[in-house]
Task: inverse folding
């Protein structure tokens, strides 16, 4: 278990939600045929279709947390990098703005010691004010149990609050106003939903003013391309082709729900600037993994619910870095 980790913080400039709303309404039209961005009250996320571990996001004090990174996985795994979110979040995010506890959602690598395998993790858990995990809706997806052409999804319990290697999270303390982002029919065939949001923000606010969002989005009326990591490899992954040949790709029927974090630009912290993991909302199929893009741009419908972070906390930044494995 990783202990005594290096921590860096970056305070983000406070922007009014309406300012970000206007930027997205203007710039997302380059990526989607129909765009509607509004400032809204967060819906109850414990209800259908979400069924998440918290009633809502968007309260005061939202933080983006970036833990570890792909260099701990690629070219070869560092198995010592296991992180307990129930310990890290209270310690490094703090209690001052989170008197009732913390909600964490996002994407990462799952606790390999629990499953004796590498796995994708969809992070969705709630900690009480003492750091106890009281609701854990997190899931892991893996291919290494049985046939690697098959996708296995497992639910984590309240007794397992660990991730491994890397994680990108929104940490929120309560419900409030959010950005509701609705986009249909993708006209930029080289982009995807999260990249489009990030590029729209970057175009408006520039390289020197990062904007960080975290929350969720759904995908309807289109299949979604996802990947799931295979078990750890003993052969070093040295190129993008090596990584893509190691990953296992799937095309999943809608609807899908993804936990998502993104930053318009990296303020020099070696961040993963966008990361989304999710699962299928159709109870008849158990499917989950890492978001790439929709397969049917002419019909796709996206619905995003995002909180704006006021700070980035970077934990255990790799000393030796690279850009592999960040798509």
Result:
């Amino acid at each position: 278990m990783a202990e005594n980790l290096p921590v860096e913080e970056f305070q983000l400039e406070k922007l009014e939600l309406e300012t970000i709303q206007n930027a997205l309404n203007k710039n997302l039209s380059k990526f989607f045929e129909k765009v509607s961005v509004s400032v809204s009250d967060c819906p109850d996320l414990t209800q259908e279709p979400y069924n998440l571990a918290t009633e809502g996001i968007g309260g005061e004090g939202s933080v983006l947390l970036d833990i570890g990174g792909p260099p701990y996985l690629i070219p070869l795994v560092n198995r010592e990098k296991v992180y307990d979110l129930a310990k890290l979040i209270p310690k490094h995010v703090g209690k001052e703005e989170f008197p009732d506890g913390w909600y964490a959602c996002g994407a990462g690598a799952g606790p390999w010691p629990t499953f004796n395998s590498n796995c994708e993790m969809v992070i969705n858990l709630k900690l009480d004010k003492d750091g106890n995990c009281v609701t854990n809706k997190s899931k892991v997806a893996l291919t290494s149990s049985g046939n690697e052409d098959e996708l296995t999804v497992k639910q984590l319990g309240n007794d397992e609050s660990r991730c491994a290697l890397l994680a990108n999270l929104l940490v929120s303390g309560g419900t409030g106003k959010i950005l509701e982002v609705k986009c249909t029919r993708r006209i930029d065939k080289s982009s995807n939903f999260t990249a489009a949001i990030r590029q729209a923000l970057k175009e408006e606010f520039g390289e020197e003013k990062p904007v960080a969002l975290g929350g969720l989005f759904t995908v309807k009326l289109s299949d979604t391309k996802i990947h799931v990591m295979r078990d750890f490899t003993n052969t070093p992954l040295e190129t993008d082709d090596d990584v893509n040949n190691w990953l296992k790709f799937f095309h999943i029927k809608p609807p899908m729900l993804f936990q998502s974090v993104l930053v318009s630009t990296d303020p020099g912290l070696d961040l993963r600037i966008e990361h989304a993991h999710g699962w299928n909302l159709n109870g008849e199929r158990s499917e989950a993994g890492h978001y790439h893009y929709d397969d049917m741009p002419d019909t796709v419908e996206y619905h995003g619910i995002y909180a704006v972070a006021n700070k980035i906390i970077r934990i255990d930044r790799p000393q030796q870095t690279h850009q592999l494995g960040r798509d």
Q: What stands out?
A: The radius of gyration is 18 Å.
